[in-house]
Amino acid sequence: MPTLSPTPLPRSFYEPSAKIVAPKLLGHLLLRRTPGGGWAGGVIVETEAYLANDPACHGFRRETLRNRSMYGPPGRAYVYFIYGNYFCFNAVCAPERVAEAVLIRAIEPTFGEEWMRMNRPVREQRDRTSGPAKLCLALDIRREHDARDLCDVNTGLIIAHNEHRRRFINQHKPVITTTRIGISVAEDLPLRFYLEKSAFVSKR
DNA sequence: TAAGTGATGCAT
DNA sequence: TGCATCACTTAA
Hints:
This protein is an alpha+beta fold. The protein has one domain (11-195): Roll (3-methyladenine DNA Glycosylase, Chain A), CATH 3.10.300.10. Helix content is 17%, strand content 27%. The chain contains 5 helices and 8 strands; from the N terminus they run αββαβββααβαββ. Strands 1, 2, 3, 4, 5, 6, 7 and 8 form an 8-stranded antiparallel beta sheet that branches. The longest helix has 8 residues, at 18-25. The model has no long low-confidence stretch (mean pLDDT 96). The protein binds a DNA duplex through β3, β4 and α4.
């Protein structure tokens, strides 16, 4: 499973449209450096794509203070605050000035589980990271992580190559493609992707 | 199933 | 300046 010295996915990985990148992120690793100096996080099992010509995308209308990082270069974080309580984490895709991103909706915890349990002490392990705001709580991802470079291991928030990705996907396939959750426009687009056999998928 | 939560951004 | 909206979660 693990990599003590993780290798971030390269920036070129995020240059295509989010609709291409979203399914390709399944099986890779969302990782956060802990105060203790180790890594916490796990395998991405559910994603959604938000596109430049997509009314549900925060960057659909124009650049604002909130969505600024979506308009920046690919391979950075877009973290936004929602419902007065929660943060959600995205990986910015597509070239600069093209506002696209992939929302990470769920991960399977594999590293730093003790630290995540402290951050989000719920009874059931599968409730720890089975939702976009849940995983931000477990990994203590906040406003200050917005715009952070996911390709630079020194920023402490990365998406890393999973050398066991193929095996993980084989064990958790098939990949299901369906409509996105919690939106009120463009509800019919097939832009949500998840691994059918993962217990951490937020909703079926 | 519904309420809580407050920043955001569009309309005024 | 005001106010509806919101890529969610939790407790019922």
